[in-house]
Amino acid sequence: AWHLHFQQEDVWFVPPTSKLLVGLWDVRAESATKGATMRLVLGDGKAQLLYIPRGVGHGAANITACRQTLIYFVNNQFDAAQPDEHRLDAFALGREFWQISVG
Q1: How many contiguous H segments (helices) and E segments (strands) does the chain have?
Q2: Which residues of the chain have pLDDT under 50?
Q3: Please, which contacts does 61-65 make with residues 24 or more away whose CB atoms are closer than 8 Å?
Q4: pTM of the complete model beyond 0.90
Q5: What pLDDT is attached to residue 101?
Q6: What does the alpha-carbon distance between residue 15 and residue 67 come to, in Å, rounded to a whole number?
Q7: Which residues pair with 52 in a beta bridge?
Q8: Are 50 and 11 in contact (CB under 8 A)?
Q9: Rounded distance between C-alpha atoms, residue 36 and residue 38, angstroms
Q10: Contact 95, 61 (CB under 8 A)
């Protein structure tokens, strides 16, 4: 579910043959959009790229019964001695954030 990076930006790609619910949560202290959230579906018949700035919490949920593919690119190499991986509670915005409702 939720994680963020302070020194890294991500670009996510979910192939059109896959389908993931993606969540974004701006937790940057000095951001004009601090606290804003967004949910979107990547894949699902479309080819799209998603840019995730440093300091924006992000996560994904598989909303199908099948395996899905997520390909991501980063601007910094992973450093095992000082990992820039910070976790947030998976349900900090409530369990319903990660659910799809039909409507």
Answers
A1: 0, 8
A2: none
A3: 61/1, 61/20, 61/21, 61/23, 61/98, 62/20, 62/21, 63/19, 63/20, 63/21, 63/100, 64/19
A4: yes
A5: 79
A6: 12
A7: 10
A8: yes
A9: 7
A10: no
Q: How far apart are the first and last CA of the chain?
A: 24
Cα–Cα distance measured from residue 70 to residue 27, given in angstroms and rounded to the nearest whole number: 23
C-alpha closest to that of 63 among 4, 20, 28, 26: 20
Query: Hey, what amino acid is at 102?
Result: V
Q: Helix (H, G, I), strand (E, B), or coil: what is residue 98?
A: helix
Output the 3-class SS for 19-65.
Answer: EEEEEEEECCCCCCCCCCEEEEEEECCCCCEEEECCCEEEEEEECCC
Amino acid identity, position 83: P
Residue 39 half-sphere exposure, CB side, CA atoms within 13 Å?
Answer: 13
Q: Cα separation of 33 and 48, whole Å?
A: 23
pLDDT at 103: 67
